[in-house]
Design brief:
The protein is α+β, with helices and mostly antiparallel strands. 24% of the residues lie in helices and 23% in strands. The chain has a 6-stranded mixed sheet. The chain has a 5-stranded mixed sheet with strand order 1-2-3-6-7.
Length: 404
């Protein structure tokens, strides 16, 4: 239960129009479709929600900040930013998970990874935001942990380590957002953490993805999942992306050169077509893996990016973290002996394939869900046009007849 101190912290700032979104009901009629709804073909079998929340226990929450328009005034807006929180076991428990991370290109930030690498554990949520808000979001997670540790100081339900080394990752939203104004506050990060839910989740212009650009279309948050059978058992693997990378020329969807076919609708500002920007990817699974195996999984995210046309350019921060919700007792054990189940290395190929497939689809879902946005200095970044995307796929005989 939220403490009185924390409840007081969740009051939104007066300046920003804020939207909270965690688990959401099924899309209503007229809601924006997902990539499969448009007939985009993908390999693999998705979970029931085709989302990272198909992995039991995983919860996602967003805090979306949108306000102002016109000329950029540092500290006053326009604001197009936010925070996303991914809880591996849900916000109701601090129990750690086995985890690993991988940097494909390091022009970005993901805090806390030294301890993830050394300990093989992820403690607390993974937080996603913009580049200049990493510090304030980091402080918010510490604040959450301190609050819980004080409220439960007579037991070890929320031990102090929850406040110590948060994992906070970023991508740059300074084209659409007054990023120098640092509009994300601790209360916004706390609100994203509190808003986290299982079930269907929001995509596109939400949370940390609010002001992001992908392949020079509007980008943002996307997710997908896969069901796999390994050694006679069925497991789930899900991916969540905050995509803000890529050139238009290189964009591919289902193997089709969509970026070359839809070469217009470019952002209204002078900029080359280099593979600029960054992407953060969070991979979750319930398969019993040890940290060194999870690092192998995290590396496979790179292949999903390549399918969509990323070359992981010099100026891109392409950082990935993978965790498993299996082996709970082994991961939480703080002294003495523990036992963890694991899959043999020789059996991991289905999980590798699922990682590539889910990453690929999560990125396309982010592009499809995102909506055209006008931000600071009147710059407009267009959403990928659904009708034209379908026409390009049809031209290359890659369209599945799932939409009119």
């Amino acid at each position: 239960m939220t403490s009185r101190r924390l409840r007081a912290a969740l009051v939104p700032t007066a300046f920003s129009v804020a939207v909270l979104a965690g688990g959401m009901p099924a899309p209503a009629a007229g809601a924006r479709p997902r990539a499969r709804d448009l007939g985009v073909p993908f390999d693999g079998t998705p979970g029931p929600l085709n989302a990272i929340t198909d992995v039991a226990g995983v919860e996602v929450g967003h805090r979306t900040l949108v306000s102002g328009e016109g000329k950029r005034v540092v500290g006053r807006g326009p604001v197009r930013t936010g925070v996303t929180a991914v809880w591996p076991r849900g916000k109701g428990t601090p129990d750690p998970v086995f985890a690993a991370w991988f940097s494909l290109n390091g022009d970005g930030e993901m805090t806390g990874t030294t301890w993830v690498e050394d300990s093989g554990l992820l403690e607390g949520p993974v937080m996603l935001t913009n580049t200049l808000s990493v510090g304030v979001v980091h402080n918010a997670v510490v604040r959450w942990g301190v609050s819980k540790s004080v409220d439960h100081r007579d037991d070890d339900t929320y031990p102090p380590w929850l406040a110590s080394l948060p994992v906070v990752a970023e991508t740059w939203d300074g084209t659409l957002n007054d990023i120098m104004g640092q509009h994300v506050k601790e209360e916004d990060a706390l609100a994203a953490m509190e808003a986290a839910r299982g079930g269907p989740m929001a995509e596109g212009n939400v949370g940390g993805g609010t002001g992001m650009i992908c392949h020079r279309f509007k980008g943002g948050i996307g997710t997908a999942s896969r069901l796999v059978e390994v050694a006679g058992a069925r497991y789930t693997l899900g991916a969540l992306v905050q995509c803000n990378y890529g050139s238009r020329r290189l964009l591919r969807v289902a193997g089709v050169p969509v970026g070359r076919e839809i070469a217009d609708l470019l952002p209204e500002f002078p900029r080359g077509d280099a593979d600029l920007g960054s992407i953060i990817v969070v991979v979750a699974t319930d398969a019993p893996l040890l940290p060194h195996q999870l690092e192998r999984v995290a590396r496979r995210v790179s292949l999903g990016l390549a399918r969509n046309g990323s070359i992981s350019g010099n100026g891109s921060g392409d950082l990935f973290v993978a965790f498993t919700t299996a082996s709970r007792e082994a991961a939480r054990n703080r002294s003495g002996r523990s036992t963890a189940e694991l899959l043999a290395n020789e059996s991991l190929d289905p999980l590798f394939e699922a990682t590539v497939d889910a990453t690929e689809e999560a990125i396309v879902n982010a592009l499809v869900a995102a909506e055209t946005m006008t931000g600071a200095d009147g710059v407009t970044v267009h959403a990928i046009p659904h009708d034209r995307l379908r026409e390009v796929l049809r031209k290359y005989n890659r369209l599945e007849n799932k939409a009119p």
